[in-house]
Amino acid sequence: MPRLLPLAAITLALAGCSFRSTPDPDLSAQDAAWMAMVPQAEFDPHFARYLVDDPTGAAPGTVVVETRERQLYFVLPDRKAVRYGVTVGDEAFGWTGSARVFRKASWPDWNPPAEMVRRWPHVHPMKGGPANPLGARALYLADGGGRDTLYRIHGTNEPERIGQAASSGCIRMRNIDVVDLFNRVPVDAPVIVR
After folding, report:
1. Has 170 been annotated as catalytic?
2. Residue 18: predicted pLDDT
3. What is the mean pLDDT of residues 27-38?
4. Which one, of 89, 49, 80, lies nearest residue 176 by Cα?
5. CB burial of residue 177 (10 Å; 0-12, 13-18, 19+)
6. pTM for this one?
7. How far is CA 91 from CA 28, 95, 112, 119, 140, in A?
8. Which among 80, 63, 68 is positioned nearest to 19, based on CA atoms?
């Protein structure tokens, strides 16, 4: 009987942690073809997309990025959220605060900011496509005054970096995950990065 107590305790503890995977979004032929051209990487299941109990306390429709956890949550009604693994800004470029989605784009062109070009002269503007660092989708963020923050939530051509602090401040997601988020999040949705 004493051996059953630890098993019972583990079972009760896990019962409070409710999560399950969610189906992939439907993809266009172009999405499927271009995503197949992005090199695939080993993927830690901890950073997969799951439907979870909402740990954020934010209002439904809010995007919450927990930078220390390397997780992004899209808050749903009924105290649920969709959780995605992300890459966040490295220590020198990370940021926190509130924003709003002011624009959404599919396979967006990339125009690196002047500050990034000064740091890395080899970067240059690039048309949307599988080699583009913004990946399959981008959500453009504005501050409280409506000004472009130059930060984005976007896909990636480096899926092996999901779960790391490796970006220049943007929030990167696997392409299949950013398509899922893109389909859920309307323009003007609130975003909290903490």
Report:
1. yes
2. 61
3. 95
4. 49
5. buried
6. 0.86
7. 36, 9, 19, 16, 21
8. 80
User: Does residue 11 lie within any of the structural domains?
Assistant: no
Q: What share of the chain is helix, strand, coil (3-state, %, to 5)?
A: 20, 30, 45
Residue 192 backbone dihedrals phi, psi, to 5 degrees? -120, 125
- Phi first, then psi, for residue 184 (nearest 5°) are -95, -30
Q: Which domain holds residue 174?
A: 16-193
The beta strands (E) that lie in 71-136 are given as: 71-76, 80-85, 88-89, 97-106
In sequence order, the 6+-apart residues with CB closer than 8 A to the CB of 79 are 53, 54
- Residues across the chain: 194
Q: What is the pLDDT of residues 113-168, one digit of tens each?
A: 777 777 777 877 889 999 999 999 999 999 999 999 989 999 999 999 999 988 87
Q: Is 17 a catalytic residue?
A: no
Establish if 109 belongs to a structural domain. Answer: yes
The backbone torsions φ and ψ at residue 129, rounded to the nearest 5 degrees and listed phi first, read 160, 180
- Active-site option among 17, 122, 124, 154: 154
In a domain, 7, yes or no: no
Amino acid at 113: P
Q: Pairing state of beta strands 88-89 and 165-167? A: parallel
Q: DSSP label at 87? A: B
Structure tokens at 13: 């503890």
| Helix 29-36 / helix 175-184 crossing angle, nearest 10 deg | 150
Q: How many domains does the structure of the chain reveal?
A: 1
In 3-state terms, what secondary structure has residue 150?
A: strand
| Amino acid identity for residue 66 in this structure | E
